[in-house]
Design a protein that fits this description.
about 260 residues, alpha/beta, Rossmann fold, 7-stranded parallel β-sheet, 9 helices, 7 strands
């Protein structure tokens, strides 16, 4: 029997990489379910319209600047500052959506060390930094919480020209399982969503091209995913409806991963 367990009323959610695409969508979904949402990104100017949209729909949101890559002492405090500011505004973070990510497509033999570091430092190390900081705070406060890492079907299989991205997302999937194993008994669930192909800022040019359309036509669903098709999986993992789900990496890909080899 349905028990309204999808409600996130009273929860405080942090969404990284929220300035566009999936991050912005996740923030709106969480706010719509009743969470107080902090939207964070390096590009804070892009967040103001998102906050306005959430508030105009009756939700609660605040924009904070966050750089998950920490190359100098000034940026080193970025994550802890966001956690502190969030607590001052709403209270402790109980839902984290680790969405910040980048891509830099290149064939394996053409990938530069600079490109490799750029992708891995954001997609894997940055996600580790944020998840670790949020988890430590939950442990200190003896609170339950949900950490949702945004991996990818490319963390489970590979594609030509995406070696660094695939490795970063595969690492994030394993990080999800390792953290879930260690934190589950403390009431902190760690799961991952693994989206298939959805049009975002990173891939729009490709999927608008003839080559991109031909590629998608050969997938099982023969189309790109729609953002709303990620909404319920996100809410399941964020809420008590998914209270017995921990360490899962859930593909939302129209069956792409089970396509014939």
């Amino acid at each position: 029997m349905f028990d309204n367990s999808i409600s996130l009323a009273g929860e405080v959610a942090l969404v990284t990489g929220a300035s566009s695409g999936l991050g912005a969508h996740f923030a709106k979904v969480l706010a719509g379910a009743g969470a107080n949402v902090v939207v964070a990104s390096r590009r804070i100017d892009n967040l103001h319209s998102l906050v306005q949209e959430i508030e105009s729909n009756g939700g609660s949101a605040t924009a904070l600047k966050l750089d998950v890559t920490q190359h100098d002492s000034e940026k080193e405090d970025s994550i802890s500052q966001v956690i502190e500011n969030t607590e001052n505004i709403y209270g402790p973070i109980t839902v984290l959506v680790n969405n910040a990510g980048v891509s830099d497509s290149a064939r394996f033999v053409n990938t530069t060390e600079e490109s490799w570091d750029f992708v891995l430092d954001t997609n894997l190390k940055g996600a580790w930094r944020v998840a670790k900081a949020v988890a430590n705070r939950l442990l200190a406060l003896k609170l339950k919480g949900s950490i949702i890492n945004i991996s990818s079907i490319l963390g489970m299989r590979v594609a030509i020209g995406e070696s660094a991205y695939a490795v970063s997302k595969a690492g994030l999937a394993q990080l999800t399982k390792a953290a879930a194993l260690e934190l589950g008994h403390k009431g902190i669930r760690v799961n991952a969503l693994c989206p298939g192909y959805f049009k975002t800022e990173l891939n729009a040019d490709f999927f608008d091209s003839e080559k991109g359309r031909a590629f998608i036509s050969n997938t099982p669903a023969k189309r790109l995913g729609r953002y709303e098709e990620l909404s319920w999986p996100m809410l399941l993992l964020a809420s008590d409806a998914g209270s017995f789900i921990n360490g899962a990496c859930i593909p939302v890909d129209g069956g792409h991963l089970v396509s014939s080899l």
